[in-house]
Amino acid sequence: MLYFHIPFCAQKCSYCNFHFSTSLQQMEPMVQGLISELEQRRDELENPHIETLYFGGGTPSLLSSKDLGRIVDAVEKQYVLDSHLEFTLEANPDDLSAGYLRELKEIGVNRLSVGTQSFFEKDLRLMNRAHSASQAEDSIKRAQDMGITNISLDLIYGSPGTELGEWRKNLEKAVALGVVHISSYAMTVEPRTALHHWVETGKVPAPEEKVQAQAFDYVHEYLSSQGFEHYEISNFALPGKRSRHNAAYWGSRPYLGIGPSAHSFDGGRKRSWNIANNALYLKHLHEPAVRMESEILSDSERYNERIMVGLRTLEGVDVRTLAPLLNESMEAHFKRESEKKLQQGLLVAKGHFLSVPVAHWFLSDGIASDLFYLET
Ligand code: SF4
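That is the input. Now the predicted structure with iron/sulfur cluster docked in place:
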């Protein structure tokens, strides 16, 4: 699995605290930098066979097709791309012109994750999105006409002032457009964002948890009735259309992340990540010890991670993958806490898997944290 972080955006969305810059002058050195980092880290993936390639951000669709093609050429020089490669590009609707889509297809992009967020203009303006509702709709139709049919939409529920009825209409629109995957996220107020400032100063009301819980129940009910599988707390797919890239993250498989702020994992204990600053990333490109940080996960950290990630999925956590991590005290803790949750109906056991029933998914982070083992 290979991930590239493209740390640029056309403008800053009011709710976003991801790492990106709105100054596009650094695009050319960044593209060279990404290729250089890829070459430096050639040997970090033991298996040179790439099944999923993912460009995330930021806004990867700000990359010209020429630059995207240069990066893909560099990938092909050092790895073998699977014949069923899942090649995803996160895109903003305003970037998806017919010409650009044609070029993306020629390069091999076969899955688009379109940052739509809402089909209501008032929501898009509050979010300070760079596109309009009609651009979102048109871009999806254009991509489908071009033959890119594996399309995921991002939608946000529970924005300040958004009614449940509007959320319903957003979902109906997404389904009517024929997308095969939907990621739906609750609006959260992150520190150091414009939305945070507006909420703090009373300019807009804070998102309401009760409304978000209703929206969550509705998205589950409605998309399930439309044939979508709710396979992870925030993700829905038609049969066979789950994101293979994300499933690999959740399955603790090794991945290499290239670019500022990108994380990597060796599939065992080591996690590493690049500095979240474009200028410093480029300055220290050839000094990995300065550019990157890493950590070696303890058994309890690996256990906690598996619990947290696993309980957010439909299948749940595979208890067999926990067993090798548990010492006597952790095992006693796990048995005691999981037994309690089973009795309360907050967990169910099926074969080797423990999962949170969908009716309680909205609480799954809290359920997972009760199972965490904290070293004393
Ligand atoms: S386009 Fe995406 S990454 Fe960029 S500011 Fe908006 S939400 Fe954040």
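Residues 9, 12-13, 16, 18, 20, 57-59, 92, 115 surround iron/sulfur cluster (CB under 6 Å).
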